[in-house]
Amino acid sequence: MKIFLPLLLAIIIVSCSGTKDAKQKNLPAQVDHKIGLNMTLGDFLQAKSVKTELAKKEDYRTIYAEVLDGDPYVEAIVYYISTGDDPRLYEVITKYKNKTALEAASKDLFGEPNYKENGWRITRNNSFNLWAWTHDTKLVVVGMIPGTEWSDQNW
Fold it and tell me: What is the 3-state composition of the chain as percent helix, strand, coil, each rounded to the nearest 5?
C-alpha cells in the first residue's frame, strides 16, 4: 500500500500535465488560452476578447488587434488571419513594452534562438511547423500553414 499511493499520485500528475490546452503552448501568456494558431476565423471570433477589434482587411489577410491596458509587460497583440475559402489564424504578433520583457518572454517560450540571432524554427511531427522571431519589441509567432503567406513552401 505504501508504494501504491505514490505510484497512483505520479500517474495522475503525469496524465494531467498533458491536458493543458495545446493551443497556448507557443504563444505568450497574454494571448487568451482559447486562441491557437490554425484555428478557423469562426472559432477565433468566438474566442477573442471583446477588446479585440478588426483593424484592417487586405487581399490575403484580415488583421485583428487588441490593446492590453494595464498589462505590465505587453502593449498589444495583433492577429493575422488568412482569407479565402477556409480562413485560419496563422500569425500572432505580441508587442512588449520594452526589450527586457520581450527577451524574458521569448526565452521562456522557446529557449535560446536556434535560427540566426533572434529566431526559432520549430519542427513538429504531427502538425504544422512554427517560426518565431523578435523585431524591436515584438515577438512574431507564425504557423507554417498551407494557404497562408507563411506556408510550408516558404520554410
Answer: 25, 30, 45
- Find residue 53's DSSP bridge partners: 65
Distance CA 132, CA 43 (A): 23
Do 130 and 26 form a contact (C-beta atoms < 8 A)?
A: yes
pLDDT one-digit tens code per residue, 20-39: 334 447 899 999 999 999 99
Per-residue confidence (pLDDT) for residue 4, from 0 to 100: 40
Query: What does the alpha-carbon distance between residue 56 and residue 33 come to, in Å, rounded to a whole number?
Result: 24
Angle at 138 between CA 153 and CA 133, to 5 degrees: 35
Query: Does pTM surpass 0.70?
Result: yes
C-alpha span between 33 and 27 (Å, rounded):
9
Q: Rounded to an integer, what distance in angstroms lies between the CA atom of residue 58 and that of residue 62?
A: 6
Tell me the torsion sign for CA atoms 121, 141, 38, 32: positive
